[in-house]
Amino acid sequence: MSTTGLTPTGSLASVGDRRRVVFATVIGTTVEWYDFFIYASAAGLVFSQLFFEPAGQQAAILLSFATVGVSFLFRPLGAFLAGHFGDKYGRRVVLVLTLILMGAATALIGLLPTFAQIGVAAPVLLILLRIIQGISAGGEWGGAVLMAVEHAPRAKRGLFGASPQLGVPLGLLLASGVMALMAVIAPGDAFLEWGWRVPFLLSIVLIAIGYWVRRRVEESPVFAEIAERKVKSRMPIVQLFRKHTLLVIIAALVFAGNNAVGYMTTGGYIQNYSTNPDGPIGLERGPVLWAVAGSAVTWLLSTFFAGWISDRIGRRTTYIVGWVLQLAGVFALFPLVNTGTVGGLFAGVAILTIGLGLTYGPQAALYSELFPASIRFSGVSISYAIGAILGGAFAPTIATALVQATGTTWSVTWYLAGMTVVGLIATLLLRDRSGIPLGPDHEAEQEVSPLYGAKRA
Question: What pTM, to 2 d.p., does this model score?
């Protein structure tokens, strides 16, 4: 069996190098999203009581979820910075820096005093640290995606690109699992007093592991070739918006359709809705967290499958099937959750993850194949960040407000269905570019717009 293969640029890369890249992107993104989701989980479970209680119960919940969304507003800043420096100085250096930034902010949240201890300074500091998390998350994804896809053989970009995507369900699994474990170790008031802090402080260990792994990975072969030929764009973000503004918007809407639905669990909404003692269900915290952790496993499997199958039937077709299944999952979610049983809740979120995986697994390859090599980091990062704002940023807050205003979860269902349809329409506007050459020798071909209706070369 051969131990080498051609990279997208035509150079040789060993199987060992590729395996290290896949391992590093999975580990790194898992750590990043563990940090991000730990916050969302805590926001749904305890932050309304610890940091916003003086505002009153209903307003405190809305404020707690709003802090989840605030970080998304700063993702574009992280994407702009990471895209600029990633296109100029390389993918790897950005990956290492974002990992450290995210870990430091997460650990500091675990040390924060509460409102009862230092007053209004507590929520202010909490929001500042969440903003830092948002900046880091905005820069992380694009670098991880390009390291994976640009190292991949042309026929396996979907599979390789699924590796950073796996970090999201793995991060959710790890975050929910650790939170559930702490609910057992420190039940009741102990969880409010100190138990919730342990998962945040655990980030220090995970960051050290992620840092060690990422430092061992070679730079992306596409960027290495760009640097060698001295064809780097001086102002990649300016070039991106001068030529590809509409493409960025359409790509962002693809992700928004997935992200709004995904943040029902990753944003902490289902956890809060199902455990609220004054709500219609009132389940125990621990079993709900374990159910969400279980759904992360089904999400992991469907995401991996989607990356693999997209190499065979194309990114666009995979997405279209995924949107249909996601829509079905949206309409099944609340009828199952509202049965008031842990089994019903697990079934609802697990069914939902099938469509979520199919509309998330191919995203790394899809985005990488949309943009020219010299501005690719900026293109994928900024599209992702804008999509996150339009989709998941305030999805838990919107869902909470809709239920408070209408008294029924059907209003949330129709909101999520609408976002799914938006994602489907955006996908239909894109041509499938599976297998397009990614190296700098093919910039002219990459510059041709993949949007239907645009001029073709």
Answer: 0.81
